[in-house]
């Protein structure tokens, strides 16, 4: 496989879907590319536009307006509770809360599936990677997820008014083919939790290492949305997806031959010194709006506004109450695609 690590090359490939196709899958092994064939993530052109329009409906900024007050309130209550305790795990106690209580409810799976969404998602991302041991041992868990999406994420079992049910409504209207419903369920089940959880924990970790940067936020909360971009730039929760080259392509003097697979490393692109001077420096005043943690081009993350809403609500609530973060034991997640922490012992003052 070819690895694209420069900002300009990654952006060019992600925006040129006619050369760098997603319809042959965006994973790094062909078994997995077969499993998700035809979902939103793994489609191109008109077929992609049709699916994405339906998937995106509840995630548009105008639709999210109705959720803002509830998410803000939950973030404030959570921060109040955890800060009163002084010590907590930034992953399980802090970062998991909004994705697991709010987002999984909105997706609307029956309870048994909701409880398993986190494990399924983590293992699904292991299945996205190259064929290493972690990849191979994740496949049985992925099969459970696909089986569940096919047999349980069905009419009558889904929460009324949920996003998953809206996919069935779209199929009934003929907006999307009904045979893609199970893999479209995975468009919601896979990327909506761990990604945001890892982003939030990485934020706590960065602010613990850089107290001078944290000091700026309580003083001027208008910096918080920009600071979230800087967290995502440095600690991109999704490190890379791949593309399939449809024709020969000259990338900076190297020929990528037709039929080759190319990994777009969002995380590396975000630390390219050609784009971001002194790229390893965490600087909440940097203009990092161009960061690629959500991708770019036709497949840019549909959950961007929701993820930003969750992150901003939490760090705003924390900025009102926390002067300092200190971190103890920090366990990095070992995952083929994701970057973040499974555990981050945190004390606040
Ligand atoms: C910080 C949190 C998140 C990060 C870092 C992230 C990252 C990404 C990236 C890099 C892509 C681009 C895929 C590509 O280029 O092929 C993507 C696509 C996608 N994301 Fe996210 N994501 C996040 C949150 C979410 C949430 C909350 C949801 C759902 C509620 C979501 C749903 C999706 C879907 C469905 C796609 C496929 C879009 C398409 O192919 O058109 N993501 N995400």
Describe the protein.
- The protein is α+β, with helices and mostly antiparallel strands.
- It has one domain: Cytochrome p450 (Orthogonal Bundle), CATH 1.10.630.10.
- It is built from 15 helices and nine strands.
- The strands form three sheets. It has a four-stranded mixed beta sheet. A three-stranded antiparallel beta sheet has the order 3-9-8. Strands 5-6 form a two-stranded antiparallel ribbon.
- β8 and β9 (341-348) form a beta hairpin.
- The chain is globular.
- The N and C termini lie far apart (47 Å).
- The structure holds protoporphyrin IX containing FE (HEM).
- The site of protoporphyrin IX containing FE has 28 residues, from α3, α10, α11 and α15.
- Residues 14, 22, 26, 40-41, 52, 55, 59, 187-188, 191-192, 195-196, 199, 237-238, 241, 266, 293-295, 299, 301-303, 306-307 line the site of protoporphyrin IX containing FE.
């Amino acid at each position: 496989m070819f690895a694209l690590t420069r900002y300009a090359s990654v952006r060019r490939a992600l925006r040129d879907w006619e050369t760098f196709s997603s319809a042959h899958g965006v994973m790094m092994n062909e078994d997995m590319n077969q499993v998700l064939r035809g979902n939103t993530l793994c489609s191109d052109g008109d077929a992609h536009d049709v699916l994405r329009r339906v998937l995106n409906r509840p995630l548009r900024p105008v639709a999210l307006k109705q959720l803002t007050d509830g998410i803000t309130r939950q973030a404030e209550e959570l921060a109040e509770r955890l800060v009163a305790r002084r010590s907590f795990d930034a992953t399980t106690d802090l970062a998991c809360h909004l994705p697991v209580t709010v987002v999984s409810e909105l997706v609307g799976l029956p309870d048994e599936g909701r409880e398993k969404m986190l494990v399924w998602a983590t293992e699904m991302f292991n299945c996205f990677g190259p064929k290493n041991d972690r990849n191979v041992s994740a496949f049985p868990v992925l099969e459970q997820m696909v089986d569940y999406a096919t047999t349980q994420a069905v009419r009558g079992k889904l929460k009324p008014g949920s996003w998953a049910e809206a996919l069935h409504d779209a199929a009934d209207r003929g907006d999307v083919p009904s045979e893609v419903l199970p893999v479209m369920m995975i468009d919601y089940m896979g990327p909506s939790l761990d990604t945001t959880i890892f982003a939030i924990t990485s934020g706590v970790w960065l602010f613990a290492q850089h107290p001078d940067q944290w000091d700026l936020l309580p003083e001027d909360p208008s910096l918080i949305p920009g600071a979230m971009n800087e967290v995502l730039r440095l600690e991109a929760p999704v490190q890379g997806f791949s593309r399939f080259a449809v024709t020969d392509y000259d990338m900076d003097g190297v020929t990528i031959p037709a039929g080759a697979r190319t990994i777009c490393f969002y995380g590396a692109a975000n630390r390219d010194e050609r784009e971001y001077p002194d790229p390893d420096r965490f600087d909440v005043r940097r203009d990092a709006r161009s960061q690629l943690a959500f991708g770019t081009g036709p497949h840019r993350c549909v959950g961007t506004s929701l993820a930003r809403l969750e992150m901003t609500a939490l760090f705003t609530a924390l900025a009102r109450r926390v002067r300092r973060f200190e971190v103890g034991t920090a366990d990095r997640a070992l995952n083929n695609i994701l970057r973040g922490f499974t555990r981050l012992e945190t004390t606040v003052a």
